Amino acid sequence: MVLQFYAPSIVGGGGGIVALVLAEKQIPFNHVLIDIHAQDHKTSEFLAMNPFGQDDDGFVLYESRAICRYLCEKYADLGTPLLPSEVTKRAIFEQAASVESANFTPTAKAARDAARKQAMADTAHGRHQGKAALDAALSDLSATLDVYEVILGKYKFIAGDKFTLADVFHYSYAPYLAESRVDIMTSRGPNVARWWNELMSRPAWVKLKREGM
């Protein structure tokens, strides 16, 4: 049975990174569209698989990062290798993945949320409060990207010289920043900018965006 991938048609978030892994690994799948506006994700059938689901021949898994790791392990012989097999390279990958989860994503999500709230503010007072919140969030994200600037001065990608799942995880929230007119990913430092531009130009990602998935 072809793998069933349940997700909304949104280029970003958990669905975005799973879709990118499927594309990079060239794994055949059937996209079961979840309409968030129609509350498809609140149905008893969908909730039985939890908030995010993948059905691989009867095996149901949720949580995007767990799904990504599963796909990379099970389909290791397909497409782009996204998980290092050598022990020290795997350790550096896990280190980078932990940094993304604990440091990057919380600050990137906070910046995205603050940018959206500022944009939706309908009063001068609200916009002022929104700018203060956005400035604070961007300060935290900037501190993380300062460390990335050093790391990316040594490596081509965040976990070494090859594109890995640690890079993929950054697609979850960072692309939303540019959509919210926050250009921090390309203006913080030359190494971060070079890395991020390379990620945004990955053929698999460009194709997903073009197709609206």
TrEMBL record:
Catalytic activity of the protein: RX + glutathione = an S-substituted glutathione + a halide anion + H(+)
Gene3D superfamilies tied to this protein: 1.20.1050.10, Glutaredoxin
Enzyme Commission code: 2.5.1.18
Domain (GST N-terminal): residue spans on this chain: 2-79
Keywords attached to this entry: Transferase
InterPro entries assigned: Glutathione-S-Trfase_C-like, Glutathione-S-Trfase_C_sf, Glutathione_S-Trfase, Glutathione_S-Trfase_N, GST_C, Thioredoxin-like_sf
GO molecular function: glutathione binding; glutathione transferase activity
GO cellular component, one term: cytoplasm
EC top class, as a word: transferase
PANTHER family assigned: GLUTATHIONE S-TRANSFERASE RHO
Identification of the protein by name: glutathione transferase
Species: Mycena pura
GO BP terms: glutathione metabolic process
The organism's taxonomic lineage, starting at the top: Eukaryota, Fungi, Dikarya, Basidiomycota, Agaricomycotina
Cited Pfam families: GST_C, GST_N_2
Residue stretches making up the GST C-terminal domain: 86-213
